[in-house]
Amino acid sequence: MRSGTHTLILLGLAAGIAACSTAPPHRPSPQVIPVDRDGRYALSEDAAPHPDEVPPDLNAIPDAVPRVEPRARSGNAPVYEVFGKTYRVLDSSKDFRERGMASWYGKKFHGYRTASGEIYDMYQMTAAHKSLPLPSYVRVTRLDNGRSVIVRVNDRGPFHPGRVIDLSYAAAAKLDMLDAGSAPVEIVALDPLASTPPSEHWLQVGVFEDPISAVVLRETLTDQGHPGAQILIEESERGTLHRVVLGPYTDIGTAQSLRSRLSDLGYTPSWIRP
Fold first, then answer.
1. Measured on CA atoms in the order 180, 57, 171, 188, is the torsion positive or negative?
2. How far apart are alpha carbons 118 and 113 in whole angstroms?
3. H helix runs in the chain, sequence order
4. Which of 20, 54, 172, 230 has the greatest count of CB atoms below 10 A from its CB?
5. How many CB atoms lie within 10 A of CB 89?
6. Domains in the chain and their CATH numbers?
7. How far is CA 177 from the centre of its chain?
8. How far apart are CA 58 and CA 174, in angstroms?
9. How many CA within 13 A on the CB side of residue 73?
10. What are the pLDDT digits (tens) for 166-222?
11. b/e burial code for range 181-191 (CB count within 10 A of at least 16 → b)
């Protein structure tokens, strides 16, 4: 925050050269991707893990943390073909946004290679997409309940009509869509350089003009196991604002995990710089 005076009060706590030519442009033949995987794609239904196989802290698995990575050596052909249909891979995920139906994939692919060459782990925060570069990072928000997760796209799919993204079992669990099997979502690509929180790792959980509302939220957070909740008072042109914050956190993984847990509780936490 750069405007106003802040007081921290502890209240109980690749460009190329174009050549002129009359010849038609070269169009590479699509790469045919073998997606049968010993018949797993032919199965009409995926399988969830047995309850004994599910980690007890499934909903506490932290979101993927966006970071700069090179493009995967496999899975990034400019065009590819699956089941006789041609798909094109984007040059970049910049400004990508999409809405549609999300589904999830689980046990029948668990332990097998993804399109990027990595091994699919249904307990990691990953996803499959038809056109985003591999890897990419996206925020997936379920539109009918507001829940949101950050996943790393490292696979191709889904190739069923009407679906825009396949989420890992863990990601689907955090969006509460395992039973339904699919849900309406919005996908927003994240820029790893812009998605890194400030070095202080402070999380704003709520902001109010009314100080009593801020105190109530602080006490609620304390009761929920966050005794470090504090209120930051900001004097600005809009008047006095009371920001309920948690932090600072020195480890980005810890901060991202907390942000995800708060989102699961219905909050909309955001990074701030006190």
1. positive
2. 5
3. 169-174, 192-195, 211-223, 252-264
4. 172
5. 19
6. 5-11+197-272 (3.30.70.1070), 57-192 (2.40.40.10)
7. 15
8. 8
9. 2
10. 999 999 999 999 999 999 999 999 887 665 555 667 888 999 988 899 999 999 998
11. ebbebbbbbbe
Instruction: Using 50 as the pLDDT threshold, list the residues of the chain that sit under it.
Output: 1-44
Enumerate the β-bridge partners of residue 98: 187
Q: Report DSSP letters for 50-76, one per residue.
A: PGGGS-TTGGGSPPP-----PPPSSS-
205-216 in b/e form (b: 16+ CB < 10 A) is bbbbeeeeebbe
Residue 17 burial (10 A CB sphere; 0-12, 13-18, 19+): exposed
Residues 6+ apart with CB under 8 A from 39: none
Asked if omega into 135 is within 30° of 0 (cis), the reply is yes
187 beta partners: 98, 140
142 is written with which tokens? 């379920």
Model pTM score: 0.60
Strands 270-272 and 202-208, by their bridges, are antiparallel
